[in-house]
């Protein structure tokens, strides 16, 4: 394999960021190239086709399906209100008259002579797409949306839940090794993006939600607490649509893991600035990681390609599996031959010197993550 | 293009998986067709490359280096062969971009719905949903679901030939109302295959032909008593090429490189499993446990079935295994105490960083415990779908009535199972082969005598598609280079207690002293077999009350092919198989079994 290691997540103080803001279906684009936008600016709007109701007129009116079109009280294409009669027929011996009412507001879309079914389409549902970032519209995708550009800091997390959110960035702990506990959260954090340290508990998240915090960013979280938060065990890492009252982004993983120094410093130095956060994660083909974007700042320093350059002696990395999970160090050797692990598996390894404690360890290359510069 | 097998001396085959593209080079040698080299590279369907051929070329370059000869002509595969350069035949399978995703419909969920599901699964698809008139959802819910799905293709079935047209038309009208869009872009029409009541074809065609890429094929359930899945399966393969593959990045180019249509990976694995069952005249179960999904294939009484458990796997889906089985079911296979919070976090960390490998022995044991549960759940799902036809009128004898037999009983009969083949990283790359053998035994609980094997480097997909054009080459490579024969498991059925003897096994291998062993209930014993290629004669005599497939207390005699692990005599009980409820006793028992088979290098 060309890559025996996990390319690292991007943590950079200065990047040129583009985000496509697309409608789920074609619609109207409301912004133009050059427009300055705020996260809440609506940039495109459309109407999703309404839900469909089926009404079995043949059965309800006891008529042959071929004769159903003759029973219609309103023509195909007509708009009807809930409860309005839409079809009528005489019953047995022509004595009683049976009427069928519309089950919902909508439009009569079709009637079938084969099945005797009427299809009623409910009114369309309006959908709006907002800009998500503070930035400038640099391209319009006709009928579909826009591209918003921002210069600023970008931190990719490893896992998140909850959708897009934004607010003023604030650190609620003093160091990346501190735990975000409920008592560190205060009423003034309402609407803010709150940064914790090594861990956030369920109780702290519950408190954050109660206070109206927009998003929480922390190093680690326990899976048992995630289960409480979602009300179920999360099976597959496809997230972003949960309605849990806030957005949670983990920068390191599950458990109690000190937030990487670089991530912490970058976030702590930007307190008071507007941050846009997305918890959407998809770990399958087409990987999507959660993110924290803080627009503003200098020129972009490095391209994405440079920041995930290959593994070499001196590369800064983080171990991402036991027994040294979460430890940060520098590569001191890249042996070319395969080495046998305790498990007896033969794999490619590297030798790492940890930043804290100066110890040296042999680690499978698959179990490290380069910390992008 | 006609392919003449006698003119094929070198073959290059690739499998474009969702994460890795694997290439193998096969050449004709004096002893027959052999695997020469294998290479792999990351698949390049996604951004930033968005061209599957980049990954194919990278994998082939690795093969070039390993084989020491030229296979590429610039940016394409060199074929036909010119002297020592290039190959005579190139072919490929694909599951990249999530494979083939389908929605199927039927009138009755348990009848045409199930037949349609079997047709789609057998063709190598992932079935996203089965919509049926009696599926418990209201019409508007079904329409909403159809709209949300965005499948690659829809298989519309329903009714038997000559049955009522109206109900089938209802399904087609539902499809019209939903107006579902294809997954790979809105720029092309969604392929819809109609394989239902033939009398309804004009009505269904009238409703769908203008709106979709519509194809009508013979009914997949022409009568209640008969399934006819082949025309629907063939149409799925054809449309997969024409519509789905043609819209996936780079596939148009890839298709021009091969004279053989690109086949969905699981469809190709199914072909080779069917071929193995036919040649060996055995009932076969094959399992492929991947990172995201687990596929199970079976051939019992000549009937082929395939299921895919879309969210059971060892990396992307590892957390879903825990969600579905429960943490206690994973822990029951772990011979040491683990704190639940820690285990949960470890599993989630594997899910979010799926490419990591266990470095510590304890970590490997936990991963193999999860694999047992993933395999067990996938097999349960398979047994539920690999069934006889439901709704069939059958004459019942008084004994059938007494035994409560019914239509739709599972075709999977563990006592009849002759060969169990495992594939996928956790089985194929287990540091010790006995680990793969025991994982399969624990998950599938075979009964009587069953041979065990693993796919050495996962080349069954390539050999499956090769078997379509060069059966002999596929069979020779499969036996010599693909299949690693582990040995067999002998498991008597019946309840017992630890004090009683369960069976006596005698093994006679040519040139070796005979071996006899009496085994107690609850024991797991490993007896050596000759190496693959040789054979041994087994005579096993169960004690009264235990059954090896010929009746209680009746002996079994068999010729056993050699294997690298040996014969596992599993007297832990079947029907029921139960682990002790007390955690300390259970862990002690697991340690003893692991020790008896030499499963791990030290005490865990």
Describe the fold and architecture.
The complex is a heterodimer of chains A (373) and B (604). Chain A is mainly beta and 373 residues long. Chain A has three domains: 52-121, OB fold (Dihydrolipoamide Acetyltransferase, E2P); 158-289, Glucose Oxidase, domain 1, CATH 3.50.30; 309-370, SH3 type barrels. In chain A, 9% of the residues lie in helices and 40% in strands. Chain A contains five helices and 29 strands. Chain A is elongated, with a radius of gyration of 28 Å. The two termini of chain A are 24 Å apart. Chain B is of the alpha/beta class. Chain B folds into three domains: 5-96, Nucleotidyltransferase, domain 5; 99-251, Rossmann fold, CATH 3.40.50.280; 283-388 and 408-597, no CATH class. Chain B has an eight-stranded mixed sheet, sandwiched between helices. In chain B, strands 3-2-1-6-12 form a five-stranded mixed sheet. In chain B, strands 8-7-9-10-11 form a five-stranded parallel sheet, sandwiched between helices. In chain B, helix 3 packs across helix 4 (165-178). Chains A and B meet through strand 5, strand 10 and helix 3 of A and strand 3, helix 3, helix 4, helix 9 and helix 11 of B.
Give structural attributes.
heterodimer; A: 373 residues; mainly beta; OB fold (Dihydrolipoamide Acetyltransferase, E2P); Glucose Oxidase, domain 1; SH3 type barrels; eleven-stranded mixed β-sheet; five-stranded antiparallel β-sheet; 5 helices; 29 strands; 9% helix; disordered N terminus; B: 604 residues; alpha/beta; Nucleotidyltransferase, domain 5; Rossmann fold; 3 domains; eight-stranded mixed β-sheet; five-stranded mixed β-sheet; 18 helices; 25% strand; globular
